[in-house]
Specification:
233 residues, alpha/beta, Rossmann fold, eight-stranded mixed sheet, binds S-adenosyl-L-homocysteine
Amino acid sequence: MINADAQELAKFSELAHRWWDPDSEFRPLHRINPLRLEWIDGLAALRGKAVLDVGCGGGILAESMAPLARTVTGIDLASRPLGVARLHALETGVANLNYREIAAEALAAEQPSAFDVVTSMEMLEHVPDPASVVRACATLVRPGGWVFFSTLNRNPKAFALAIVAAEYLLRLLPRGTHEFARFIRPSELARWCREAGLVVETSRGIEYNPFTQRYGLTADTSVNYLLACRRPG
Ligand code: SAH
């Protein structure tokens, strides 16, 4: 059994041609990317590292890590976003960036401990068994390496902001992008990390100010948040 939801993958495939349009449905990912990139690089120092991006989609984060890292591998199970990611990398001329259509669990069986840094951003909330992806990431990273996740918290405020405001009022995202029941509390994600043998190091919230239309990192993890973990050395 493959740990993926065909409807979710189809949703991302349908929009794939607009992935690199900074004013499209993917605008929020473009806008938060410099923030998360700087945070990841600040903790894990990407220079010279082999990086894996799980659920890379069209490659916004993966491609941005390539100039900093030694190699970046992006994996996803939606083929059209991967096609877009490959084309964009070709256009940009990034040579140390590879994309593969493979599940995290399958790559973990194939290449355990192969990566210095593993990232999986805005992806766990689209997967039927997110704890299984967390375990795969823990297997893929080498001892001493870093694993970064980001997802949406599950509480009334996250429902109001990430679904009602983002999808209906401000129309930052298409309706139906997110399903509230799949949102993940930081305590749940931290528990899956610990059960997978990872040590949770730190977390940050991602906030959006609709008046200034600016994103920023904050201590408040009540809506969208990032979690940094390490595999003990
Ligand atoms: N991580 C990227 C893209 C986030 S969009 C970024 O933050 O910029 C969510 C991505 O997760 C989509 O590309 C979708 O195809 C992918 N995805 C959803 N379910 C998946 C699964 N089970 N395995 C791998 N990728 C999945």
